[in-house]
Automatic annotation (TrEMBL):
<dbReference type="InterPro" id="IPR017970">
    <property type="entry name" value="Homeobox_CS"/>
</dbReference>
<keyword id="KW-0238">DNA-binding</keyword>
<keyword id="KW-0804">Transcription</keyword>
<comment type="function">
    <text>Transcription factor.</text>
</comment>
<keyword id="KW-0805">Transcription regulation</keyword>
<dbReference type="InterPro" id="IPR045224">
    <property type="entry name" value="HDZip_class_I_plant"/>
</dbReference>
<keyword id="KW-0371">Homeobox</keyword>
<keyword id="KW-0539">Nucleus</keyword>
<feature type="domain" description="Homeobox">
    <location>
        <begin position="21"/>
        <end position="81"/>
    </location>
</feature>
<dbReference type="GO" id="GO:0000981">
    <property type="term" value="F:DNA-binding transcription factor activity, RNA polymerase II-specific"/>
</dbReference>
<protein>
    <recommendedName>
        <fullName>Homeobox-leucine zipper protein</fullName>
    </recommendedName>
</protein>
<dbReference type="GO" id="GO:0043565">
    <property type="term" value="F:sequence-specific DNA binding"/>
</dbReference>
<comment type="similarity">
    <text>Belongs to the HD-ZIP homeobox family. Class I subfamily.</text>
</comment>
<dbReference type="GO" id="GO:0045893">
    <property type="term" value="P:positive regulation of DNA-templated transcription"/>
</dbReference>
<dbReference type="Pfam" id="PF00046">
    <property type="entry name" value="Homeodomain"/>
</dbReference>
<feature type="DNA-binding region" description="Homeobox">
    <location>
        <begin position="23"/>
        <end position="82"/>
    </location>
</feature>
<dbReference type="InterPro" id="IPR001356">
    <property type="entry name" value="HD"/>
</dbReference>
Amino acid sequence: MVRQDKRFLGAESMIMMRDLSDLEREETRPTAAHVQILEKNFEVENQLEPEGMMQLAIELGLQPRQVAIWFRNRRARFKHKQEDDLAGV
């Protein structure tokens, strides 16, 4: 496959490529129901093994990376809340 230099593509082709890349990047955001299930799993175990992450992602219809990032962000929020509680804020 020959890679085309974007400088030589017409304006119409550039728009189509941009639209295609937006579609490829589009992911389903976790719904309220997803978040509820993720929260329940977090209460049980705040660090998922890869197999558990894959299973949860399949169950929710999300990408495994989305589940991993959600857990990472949730652990960070949990840590900050604990630090704030200890500081008396």
